[in-house]
């Protein structure tokens, strides 16, 4: 759809040294079926990086970064308008929660009390249920230009929302800088004990949105182990070493090198990779590099930094050729990958994985830093 008239004029700041700082602007992007206005916020750093964020789902709608020749290109999959988003939700760029990933059978116990949340992925609950954070319009609290253009969005999930206890107030802050870094920070507070696991579900293709398969793009994941799952994608409880398996990405390799190994039951279950890597057994004090992906064609390199213990890697297995993207191309299996820093899936039901409990007076935080660079041919 055509972006509407600007709702707030972009502000351009120039430093005393004469360098151009970043811009931030807002524009209408249409309305939801129930009439709520959706806003698109555009952040630019002045030399090739542009991030576009939707208030619907606090989603990363587009991210343009330069290739090795300095030509910017959008590397994020998504629908061209809101129609597709509501007709066939696929979490393109979305903030997902309250509990990202899966909860077995939509049930968990907290402080001795049993809770039930919507089942929307086979027998399990996925990404917060039928109406998770991805399907609501967030409030835009702050849009700032300057050296680090940013937008902060907030959503207040009431007590009992999708079956979860406690009123949860969540913020999502997107920031870019002149080093071609995109930072996404999530925080959450509650008025009663609850569980929280919020992450971002962007589908990446470093060669460009709509350019085809990512199977030749090379990935490194800094995890010595991963979590095998049952046939419904729920972790079995085992923490399995990646050594000698198709899941060993400690040294960079093409995403598609081993993905069709039918002898590996885990790849059969997921139709490819859809598993959580164990980066550590608990949250780190500071973000560290958890993954790095490079595209030999464009030269773009993505380095992801996070303090979270887990990293879900999804290889776009369920893109089935029925979705037309922003550039008019059709998305097919393997045309993108997702990297989602988070707690381990089904943690509320598996105490050995740690705890997802958030108590009043405490603040949940998930900080993700995406650092972009280019490689030589």
Describe the structure.
- By secondary structure, this protein is mainly β.
- Helix content is about 5%, strand content about 40%.
- It has two helices and 30 strands.
- The relative contact order is 0.16.
- Mean pLDDT is about 95; it is low at about 1-20.
In short:
The protein is mostly beta strands. It contains 2 helices and 30 strands. A 9-stranded antiparallel sheet has the order 12-13-14-15-30-24-23-18-21, with no helix packed on it. The chain has a 6-stranded antiparallel sheet with strand order 1-2-3-4-5-6, with no helix packed on it.
Strand order of the largest sheet: 12-13-14-15-30-24-23-18-21
The amount of beta strand, in percent, is: 35-45%
The total count of strands amounts to: 30
Overall radius of gyration: 20 Å
| Class from secondary-structure proportions | mainly beta
Can you give keywords for this protein?
single chain, mainly beta, 2 helices, 377 residues, 3% helix, 30 strands, 6-stranded antiparallel beta sheet, 9-stranded antiparallel beta sheet, disordered N terminus
């Amino acid at each position: 759809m055509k972006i509407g008239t600007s709702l707030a004029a972009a502000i351009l700041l120039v430093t005393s040294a004469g360098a151009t700082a970043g811009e931030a602007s807002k524009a209408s992007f249409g309305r939801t079926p129930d009439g709520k206005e959706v806003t698109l916020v555009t952040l630019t750093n002045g030399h090739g990086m542009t991030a576009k964020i939707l208030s619907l789902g606090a989603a990363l709608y587009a991210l343009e970064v330069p290739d090795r020749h300095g030509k910017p290109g959008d590397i994020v999959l998504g629908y061209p308008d809101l129609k597709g988003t509501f007709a066939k939700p696929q979490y393109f760029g979305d903030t997902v929660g309250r509990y990202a990933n899966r909860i077995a059978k939509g049930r968990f116990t907290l402080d001795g009390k049993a809770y039930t949340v919507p089942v929307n992925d086979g027998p399990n609950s996925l990404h917060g249920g039928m109406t998770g954070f991805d399907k609501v319009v967030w409030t835009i609290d702050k849009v700032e230009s300057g050296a680090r253009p940013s937008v902060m969005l907030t959503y207040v999930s009431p007590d009992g929302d999708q079956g979860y206890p406690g009123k949860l107030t969540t913020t999502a802050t997107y920031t870019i800088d002149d080093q071609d870094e995109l930072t996404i920070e999530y925080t959450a507070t509650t008025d009663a004990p609850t569980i929280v696991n919020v992450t971002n579900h962007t589908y990446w293709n470093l060669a460009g949105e709509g350019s085809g398969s990512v199977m030749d793009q090379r990935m490194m994941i800094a995890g010595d182990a991963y979590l095998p799952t049952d046939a419904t994608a729920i972790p079995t409880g085992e923490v399995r070493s990646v050594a000698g398996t198709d899941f060993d990405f400690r040294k960079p390799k093409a995403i598609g090198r081993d993905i069709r190994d039918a002898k590996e039951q885990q790849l059969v279950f997921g139709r490819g990779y859809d598993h959580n890597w164990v980066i550590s057994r608990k949250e780190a004090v500071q973000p560290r590099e958890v993954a790095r992906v490079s595209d030999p064609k464009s030269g773009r390199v993505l380095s992801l930094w996070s303090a979270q213990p887990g990293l879900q890697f999804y290889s776009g297995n369920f893109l089935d050729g029925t979705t037309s993207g922003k550039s008019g191309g059709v998305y097919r299996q393997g045309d993108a990958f997702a990297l989602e820093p988070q707690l381990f899936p089904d943690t509320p039901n598996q105490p050995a994985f740690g705890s997802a409990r958030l108590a009043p007076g405490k603040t949940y935080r998930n900080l993700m830093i995406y650092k972009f660079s280019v490689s030589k041919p």
